[in-house]
Amino acid sequence: MPIELVRVDHRLVHGQVTMGWSRAVGADVLLVISDRVAASPFDTSLMEMAVPPGVRLVVWSVDHARQAAADGTWPDGKILVLVANPIDLERLVAAGLTLNEVNIGGVRSDGARHKLTKEVHATDDELVAWKTLADHGIRLSVQWLPAQKRKLLNDEITKR
Fold first, then answer.
1. Alpha helices in the chain (DSSP H)
2. Is the pLDDT of residue 108 over 80?
3. What's the mean pLDDT in 120-139?
4. What pLDDT score does 16 carry?
5. In contact, 80 and 5? CB cutoff 8 Å
6. From CA 8, how far away is CA 12, in angstroms rounded?
7. Phi/psi of residue 105, nearest 5 degrees
8. Ranges for the PTS EIIB type-4 domain (predicted)?
9. Do the beta carbons of residue 93 and residue 72 sit within 8 Å?
10. Residue 83's CATH number
């Protein structure tokens, strides 16, 4: 499978991703999976401006990505998958995407009541999605930049 890294970050494409993570994993494709961005040529255009030379941006809806997860049809290249929240990621895993580990940046949604770490806040539904991902045996690693130490989110989730 050409997926080098899966990252959950509500900002999707930004400097830490384009300069840090895409370089660290050698990604030449940023695959943004977001219904909001897929429906907005303006948002897609803004993200394209942030993508470094030699890296291609692909934007899919969650349903398109679910189909790809089910039948294994991904873009050519070394892919860094970006989703904004754990709910969308859990939908991909339910459709057949197999993961051992997920990289987590900042995740903050409107109505988030659960502070899991300084960087990760969750709504009730997102907390359920995080738990489901952890129950699949996926290592949930909070790490803003490649050189920083990883913080395991799984332990915090099991306490709730």
1. 15, 22-25, 35-38, 41-50, 62-71, 86-95, 124-135, 154-158
2. yes
3. 96
4. 84
5. yes
6. 8
7. -100, -135
8. 1-160
9. no
10. 3.40.35.10
What is the bridge-based pairing of β-strands 139-142 and 101-104? parallel
3-class secondary structure, 28: coil
Residue 156 identity: E
Instruction: Tell which residue, 140, 42, 128, has the closest CA to residue 100.
Output: 140
User: Among residues 32, 147, 20, 11, which one has the least CA distance to residue 79?
Assistant: 32
Q: Residue 82: pLDDT above 70?
A: yes
In tens, the pLDDT along 23-41 reads 999 999 999 999 999 999 9
Q: Which domain holds residue 148?
A: 3-158
Average pLDDT over residues 109-134: 93
pLDDT in tens, 146-158: 999 999 999 889 8
Average pLDDT over residues 7-17: 92
C-alpha 84/C-alpha 36 separation (Å) is: 10
Using CA atoms, how far residue 116 sits from 6, 44, 52, 151, in Å, is 19, 30, 32, 11
Give me the number of domains the chain comprises: 1
